[in-house]
Amino acid sequence: MARIMSNPALFSYNAVQIEDELNSIVQTIDVPAADITAFADVYQNAVAGKKSVRTEIGGSADLAASQGWKTLFAGIGAGPKSTVLDPVGTGPGANAPEYQCTASGLTGVLVAAMKISLPVGDAARYTATLQHSGLTSRAVA
Amino acid sequence: MTSRFHAAGVAVYVDEFDFSGVTSSAEIAVTNPTPEVTAFADADATFVEGKPGFTITLNGFHSVAAPDYEGEMFIDLTAENRQVGVYKDNLAGEMGFEGRTDLSRLAEPVQVSQALLLNVTWQGDTPLVQSQLLYIATAVAASVNGTKFQFGSIAATETRVGVLRLLASPGGAGSNDLVVTIESDADSLAGGETTRITFTTLNQASVATHEKVETAGAVTDTWWRAVITITGAGTRTFSILVTFGKRPT
Description:
The complex is a heterodimer of chains A (141) and B (249). Chain A has 141 residues and is mostly beta strands. Chain A has one helix and eleven strands. In chain A, strand 1 (10-13) and strand 2 form a beta hairpin. The two termini of chain A are 22 Å apart. Chain B has one helix and 17 strands. In chain B, strand 12 (177-185) and strand 13 (194-198) form a beta hairpin. Chain B has two domains: 7-126, Elongation Factor Tu (Ef-tu), domain 3 (Beta Barrel); 134-248, Jelly Rolls. In chain B, the strands form two sheets. In chain B, strands 1, 2, 3, 4, 5, 6, 7, 8, 11, 15 and 17 form an eleven-stranded antiparallel sheet that branches. In chain B, strands 9, 10, 12, 13, 14 and 16 form a six-stranded antiparallel sheet that branches. The A-B interface holds A 20-21, 50-53, 60-65, 67, 70, 73, 76-77, 79, 106-107, 110-124, 131-136 and B 1-8, 10, 24-34, 36-38, 42-49, 51-52, 86, 88, 95-96, 128, 130, 150, 152, 248.
């Protein structure tokens, strides 16, 4: 019953830790399920395709160098970069998996979109959509 | 420790016009197409990058005088290459953005018992510039070296972008020339500066205007400042804003 808080989550992009600005990280893995249901099947039936990983991050903006916004912005058009998501904050370990997408060739993470919002009545906030290309692995050691 | 901030003091410029007093929200969105190129031999879905683009959306209030926001927006809806600047605050040293843009959408919601709004979306037509406000003064009357700020180096794949805004016709009397340059330096100490950008000379006959100057070439210096040189026998004062940034070439 080891349910845990996500408070200590860690996230790095291109070897820069940016979790000190983030308050939301959503990693979504889509696996296209192709329908192969036939007349003889009692229930719908599907087969799995190739998985695709996308990470949506959001947080408070800091426009200084080496912080999240500028680090991610520099990645636009710069090719695949490495990311590491450690949701537990103590990984990688047997009970603390890390999700790693390591840049190599076409593999790595592409910055697909960024948005900074500056409303007069709130903090400056930003979001970014990161499209993983190729393998995202689950490291436990 | 990060420098997260409230957006209460954001400064907004369109060309040489300061619309901070009539805007209440700014949103900058950068999109980068990532078409899928997954092949049979790939174990996982695979993607590549396309050409990025950006929009700047400014939500504000209908204003027809001081500043004439509505008039300026409608003056020529098809005008291209408007210089939109958004900064964390109207203070030297603050970070922000500059973009050469075209007005792509203007919405004016008119609803009973509500403020009359004017919302504008600007479509970028060059790369978004990461910029820093180097110098601002409402009445500079004598030559002065601005404070040096550590903006960072410029790579060979990047273009330097300086923007000078003269926010109003010069005050005072007589004849004066105003020359603004942007210099780089390896450190924050005096000496060793190199001029990287020079703007067109302004004088007593100048009216509110703006100029963007871009120069190429890598620069290893990381410190940058604006240098204001005023010559002549007059007593003119200039209201100016100087920013420096970089964009992908």
